[in-house]
Amino acid sequence: MSFHGCFFFFFFFPFCLFIPCIAHGGTNQPPPAIKLNVIDRCWRRSPNWQRHRQQLGVCSVGFSGKMTNNVGADVVKYKVTDDGDHPLEPKPGTLRFGATAIKGKVWITFKKDMRIKLEKPLLISSFTTIDGRGASVHIAGGGCLLLHQGSKQTLMDGANLIDHHQVTDVIIHGIRIHHCQPQTPGKVLGPDSKMAELGDVDGDAIRLVASSRVWIDHNTLYECHDGLLDVTRGSTDVTVSNNWFRNHDKVMLLGHDDEFVQDKKMRVTVAFNHFGPNCYQRMPRVRHGYAHVVNNLYQGWEQYAIGGSMNPSVMSEANLFIAPESENKEMDKQASNATNVSTISDMGDTLAVVNLFTLFTIRAYLSN
């Protein structure tokens, strides 16, 4: 059994030291001396967590809220036994069948370690939990994960969407997602077994479109063609926690583009994540909405760590920034012209200087 992207942390004044943990084999429980964060404390201490997987649903924090709509006696337990994929006629036992063809609440687990190459992006239905605990599961080399729903829909980056139906109440936990590739237009089986027409898809690891109440926890994301995580087009009430983002340029985008003002209602919590090594920018980059960025580890960056434009509000709190070696870098980047103002509040962040380092600016603007 394996876990990845989990973060134990110890508090030393004045900063918080995060220790990423990768456990391979043996017990899934940490040594008694290790202090777990509030999410992991909720379930990892139990020796019987595999028999009580739904306990995870009440462990989320932040804007996603507790994922109580994903648990209960009416949940369908579905186990992935086949690493194959067919975008239109998925076979029972495959991941796509569990995520699209089963109505109502579904809790997806994996029988064994596997590497899944999706022929087209996987459109995930509402009330779905993808739980990779207990197996090493890679989604890599093809399409990746997309939260978007419509009875007959076309999704094209940069174009308008038809049918702004929401996908809600989704948990993605314990998956390695990497080397995602752009996808050409085509049909794919969507949520509730309805056919969907997709336009060009850029190759993000996870993309949210008009989705809400989503919890993305304990995943490892790296080396995809476009972004690692995009929260776009009116998506809100999202928590991104305990993930490991590495080896990537544009890591996390919150808010679709400058003109999509519906993202003003967006609320995202970014907590207990590990960014780096080799992350360049957008950790996250926020447009229009509100993000609480708290207790994250930044293991270097190239252009900037946290960025904002189009009047977002970002609360950056108790993060640890380990500065890159040499050269001038920005810890946070803010637009500042008359019509494009960002508010980034730095509350208890700590900058650890490694060798020679010059910081352009560390800003401490407080929101009203």
Fold and architecture overview:
A hairpin with a 2-residue loop joins strand 33 and strand 34. A ten-stranded parallel sheet has the order 3-4-7-11-16-19-23-27-30-35. The N terminus and C terminus are likely disordered. With 368 residues, it is mainly beta.
Features:
mainly beta, ten-stranded parallel beta sheet, 37 strands, 3% helix, globular, disordered N terminus, disordered C terminus
- Profile the largest sheet: 10 strands, parallel
Strand content: 35-45%
Shape: globular
Poorly predicted residue ranges: 1-27, 151-163, 353-368
Measured on Cα atoms, how large is the radius of gyration?
Answer: 20 Å
- Gap between N and C termini, in Å? 47 Å
- The helix tally amounts to 2
Overall number of strands: 37
Helix content: under 10%
Strand order of the largest sheet: 3-4-7-11-16-19-23-27-30-35
Mean pLDDT: 81
Structural class: mainly beta
Summarize the structure.
The protein has helices at residues 38-41, 95-100; strands at residues 2-12, 15-24, 76-80, 106-110, 114-116, 122-123, 128-131, 137-140, 145-147, 154-155, 167-173, 176-178, 186-189, 195-198, 206-209, 211-217, 220-222, 229-232, 236-241, 244-246, 248-250, 252-254, 267-271, 274-275, 279-281, 285-287, 290-294, 297-299, 304-309, 313-317, 320-322, 328-334, 336-337, 340-341, 343-347, 350-352, 358-359. It is mainly beta and 368 residues long.
